[in-house]
Amino acid sequence: MACHLWHHFSIRKNYWQDGTSGTMCPIVPGTNYTYKFQVKDQIGSYYYFPTTGMHKAAGGIGPINIHSRDLIPVPFDRPADDMDVMVGDWYIKGHKALKNILDGGRFIGRPNGIQINGKSNKVGDSIAQPVNTVESGKTYRCNIGLKTSINFRVQGHPLKLVEIEGSRTVQNVYDSVDVQVGQCMSVLVTANQEPKDYYTVVSSRFTKTPIQSVAIIRYANGKVGSASPTLPPPPPEGSAGIAWSNNQFCSFRWNLTSSTARPNPQGSYHYGRINITRSIKLSNSQSQVDGKLRFAVNGVSHVEPVDGTPVKLLEYFGVKGQLKYNLMKDEPSAAPKITLAPNVVNTTWRNFVEIIFENTEKTIQTWHLDGYSFFAVTIEQGKWSPAKRNNYNLIDAVSRHNIHIYPNSWAAVMLTLDNAEPQQLCGLVKNMPRINKYSGF
After folding, report:
1. Helix-strand-coil percent breakdown of the chain, rounded to 5?
2. The pLDDT of residue 423
3. Which helix (H) or strand (E) segment is 439 a member of?
4. What span is annotated as the signal peptide, if there is one (predicted)?
5. Strand, helix or coil at 56?
């Protein structure tokens, strides 16, 4: 059985199509289900994957590109073509074995490699087919999506960033870009070099043992097999690498002059002037519970209701006794004892909320908020305090759906809770513990 998550989409006016186990029942084997939701004003690069049974690890993942109509201008010339680059880690073990390891409360360990569009290669391999073929003088858009933290670069070609998770960005040019777990972005690549083969390179970030893979971009009528074995170097690792990556994150800015549709139709472009009505601080932790490794947020480790009924259905039909709201508090306690329970937090419709994520772990954590976009206002090392609000980007932070937090660091986001009818909005953070639980492996 499976449900499919439409990653980064704001499922407007139909929260029941979200695709997670908290909002809908899995699709029974041998049956079909048609999702219906509105994608208005969400022009950009996205992807989908199943949220149950570790089917994602079996290759159940794919890109979705939403283009603007011809009547809606975009802030760059239309590219000659789109090149979807789906990057992710892979394991020798199958998805069922990986699921059994996780269900047993253990780590699945480091991945065995990185794949680009389902293939893993190294320099010198006889790569029969290029990942893409380009024509000299034309510009192409690469839509990058992935499930592990990587650095992406194209040999001999700079990258012009134009979009992150549905938001047009200031068009800065980079030699390479860091793409964290679950994130998507679009870069423009112009084929203006000598017509031959070039390597696309992806390498892991902040891992004890770096892993890398390459793919070929081939110029039409170019010399086949002529890619240079000298690859563009990766960014630094360790603390210098975190500083490098965070500086790049800070350079990502929302394009406020773009005339294209924006992903925050009910919010305000002047979000920095809106009064914060609630501040929630979330801290992830891990501990053994009944002999199994459990991950928790503010001391609560999310589990599904006893009979497996999705949380939203229990609420809709008024089933009593299975849910206790607000078990998770807005502030983490000093030494929380982990509680296993459905983790549902009540919120107020259309409130403007600040969420601070604190990561005390040794690995990067990534948080995704289903059905919403938020303003990713800052990421910093150390501890958060109210005085840190002076460091927020309150002008042009990118409206996005994912935020990553480096080890011993924190991140802050701001958002308006405007994506559901009042009686439906009861599960703002119920899916966060589920996503966070797997991000540190």
Report:
1. 10, 35, 55
2. 34
3. helix 432-439
4. none
5. helix
Tokens of 48: 């989908």
Distance CA 41, CA 45 (A): 12
Residue 362 has a pLDDT of 84
Contact call for residues 317 and 298 (beta carbons, < 8 A): no
The number of beta carbons lying within 10 Å of the beta carbon of residue 195 is 15
The vertex-181 CA angle with 371 and 274, nearest 5°, equals: 45
- Compute the distance between CA of residue 86 and CA of residue 115 in angstroms, rounded to an integer: 8
Q: Which of 8, 441, 435, 62 is nearest to 183 (CA)?
A: 8
Q: In whole angstroms, what is the distance from residue 264 CA to residue 223 CA?
A: 46
Contact 312, 23 (CB under 8 A): yes
- In a 3-state reduction of DSSP, which class is residue 366? strand
Pull the structure tokens for residue 72: 């809606």
From CA 65, how far away is CA 76, in angstroms rounded? 16
Residues 68/70/73/75 CA torsion (nearest 10 deg)? 70
CA 243 to CA 306: how far, in whole Å? 44
Q: How many residues does the chain have?
A: 441
Task: Please tell me the pTM assigned to this model.
Answer: 0.87
Q: How confident is the model at residue 14 (pLDDT cuts 50, 70, 90)?
A: low
* Residue 290 CB partners (closer than 8 Å, separation 6+): none
Nearest to 131 by CA among 183, 192, 77, 82: 82
β-pair type (132-134, 212-219)? parallel
**Which residues have CB under 8 Å from 53's CB, separation 6+?**
1, 2, 95, 99
